[in-house]
Each structure stands twice: as structure tokens, then as C-alpha cells.
Amino acid sequence: MRQIPPQQLQVAGLAWRGRPGSLERPLSEELRLTIRRNGHVYEQTYAHGVPQAPLKQVGDTTERGTECYFRPSQETFGNVQFH
């Protein structure tokens, strides 16, 4: 699959206005973004705020929306409990 340069993402409307994940990225052990837009699915994964690879197209879709998977960092949050 082809890589999409950041400047093309901005033109395509994939540059986030509210920047989903901007707060969570540095606070997360793992953050995975899945973006469904313009007939395609894009993904990017971060570890402790550092991108593990560039945003890449991983498939096609008829849906739209952004999904954010977040796992809090044990280094940042000493006591992580889910209820």
C-alpha cells in the first residue's frame, strides 16, 4: 500500500482539527488510531507518544469515523485500574 505524505493528508482532510489522541499519545503505553475516510482505512500506532510507523492505508471501507484505542502508561500513572 502506498504511503501518504502528511501534506497530502491535510489536503485530503485527514489533518485532525481537534487532534484526536493529542493528549493520550504521551500518556499511553500504546495508542492505536484507525481512521475511516474517503473510502479508505488508515492506521497508526504509538508507543509512549512515539509513532511506530507512518500513517498507512490498510484497507477500504464505506464507513467514516475515527477509532482510538488507548492503554495508559504504567510509568505515568502508577495505579491503573479499570472498573
Q: Can you characterise this structure?
A:
By secondary structure, the protein is mostly beta strands. Helix content is 7%, strand content 40%. The protein has one helix and five strands; from the N terminus they run αβββββ. It has one helix spanning 6-11, and strands spanning 28-37, 40-47, 50-51, 56-60, 65-72. Strands 1, 2, 3, 4 and 5 form a five-stranded antiparallel beta sheet that branches. The longest helix is centred in the first third of the chain and has 6 residues, at 6-11. It is elongated. It starts with 5 loop residues before the first helix and ends in an 11-residue tail after the last strand. 8% of the residues are buried.
Question: Could you list some keywords that capture this structure?
Answer:
mainly beta
Concise structural overview:
It contains 1 helix and 5 strands; from the N terminus they run H-E-E-E-E-E. With 83 residues, it is mainly β.
Low-confidence stretches: 7-18
Strand count, sense and barrel status of the largest sheet are: 5 strands, antiparallel
* Nearest-integer average pLDDT: 75
Strand content: 35-45%
How many β-strand runs? 5
Tally of separate helices = 1
Gyration radius over CA: 14 Å
Alpha carbon gap, first and last residue: 39 Å
Helix content estimate: under 10%
Please identify the structural class as seen in this structure: mainly beta
**What characteristic shape results from the CA principal axes?**
elongated
Order of helices and strands: HEEEEE
